[in-house]
Amino acid sequence: MWDYSDKVKEHFFNPKNAGAVVEANATGEVGSISCGDALRLTLKVDPETEIILESGFQTFGCGSAIASSSVLTEIIKGMTLDEALKVTNQDIADHLEGLPPEKMHCSVMGREALQAAIANYRGEEWRDDHEEGALVCKCFAIDAVMIEEMVWANKLRTVEDVTNFTKAGGGCAACHEDIEAILEKVLAEKGEKFDPSICSKPEDKQKPAAPEKIAAVKTPLTNLQRIKKIEEVLESLRPALMADGGDVELVEVIGNTAYVNMTGACNGCQMAAMTIAGIQQRLMEVMGEFIKVVPASEMSKLVNIA
C-alpha cells in the first residue's frame, strides 16, 4: 500500500469544503469517471476584487484525489484569481507534506480544475490541451501535449515518472515506447540525454521486470479470469465493510467495467462514492490493469440507450 503523510490522511478522512459552493460564479471540471478520476471545483469570487471568497469540490477518485482537492480549496481561499493561477501541482503536494510518486497525477488534476474554473469566471475558453496532441495513452486518454508539459514542468526523466504524474502508461503498457520517444525529444530540447535504462528509484536501475509483470502485459486477462480476480479482491475487502454494517456485491463485469451493489449500511451512505473509488483503486493495484467500478444502477442506462 502507499505511504501517506498525516496531512493526506487528515484531508481524506476529514475533507475541507466538500460539496458545491452555494451561489458559485466559477466552475471547473476536469477528468472523467471512465478514466478513474474526476473533479468539479466551484468558486465564489468577489466581482470587484477578484478574491476567492469560497471554494468547494466534488471528487470521484482515490484518497489522494480527495486530499488534493480538499487542500487546494484551502490554499486558494483569500487569494486573487491571478495569485491562484500561480499555484502549481507541486504546491498542492507540498501542502500535503508530500504525495506518493504514484499519486502525483492527483495534484495535477487539482491544478487543471483551478485553471478551468478561473477561465470559466472570466468567460474564457479553457482547453486542457489534451485534444491538441496525438493520443498516446488510450487507457487514460492522455495525449502528447500533456506528457510534454509535465516532463518540462516537473523534470521527469523516466516512463515511471510520467505514469506517476499523468497516469499515462499505467494500464496496458502498450504506450511505453511512445512515452520514451517523448522523453527523448523533450530532454534533447533541454540539452539532456534520455537513458531508458534509468529507473525512478536508484535501487531499480537496470533491474529486469518481474516475470509476473511481463506476463501481465503479454497475456491480458480473460473475462472469466477478471471476474475471479475481482471476486477475490472484494472478498478481501468485505470484512472491513461488514464491520461498519455494509457489504458489496458483484453484479456484472462487462469488459473493464465492474458493476456492483453496495448493500447494508453502505446502501445510500454519503461515503458510498468514496468507498467505490477505494474499491476501484484496490482492484487496479492488484490486477495491474484499468478497472472501472460503478453502481449496478448504471446498467439500466445502458439498456435504455441500447
Describe, in short, the structure shown.
It contains 12 helices and 8 strands.
Please explain how this structure is put together.
The protein has 306 residues and is α+β, with helices and mostly antiparallel strands. The protein has three domains: 6-121, Alpha-Beta Complex (Sufe protein. Chain: A); 135-207, BFD-like [2Fe-2S]-binding domain (Arc Repressor Mutant, subunit A); 223-305, GMP Synthetase, Chain A, domain 3. Helices cover 44% and strands 17% of the residues. It is built from twelve helices and eight strands. It has helices spanning 6-13, 63-76, 81-84, 89-95, 104-121, 144-154, 159-166, 176-189, 211-218, 223-243, 272-287, 299-305; strands spanning 26-32, 37-45, 52-60, 135-137, 142-143, 246-254, 257-264, 292-295. The strands form three sheets. Strands 1-2-3 form a three-stranded antiparallel β-sheet. The chain has a three-stranded mixed β-sheet with strand order 6-7-8. Helix 4 crosses helix 5 (104-121) and helix 10 (223-243) crosses helix 11 (272-287). The chain starts with 5 loop residues before the first helix and ends with a helix. Residues 200-218 and 302-306 have low confidence and may be disordered.
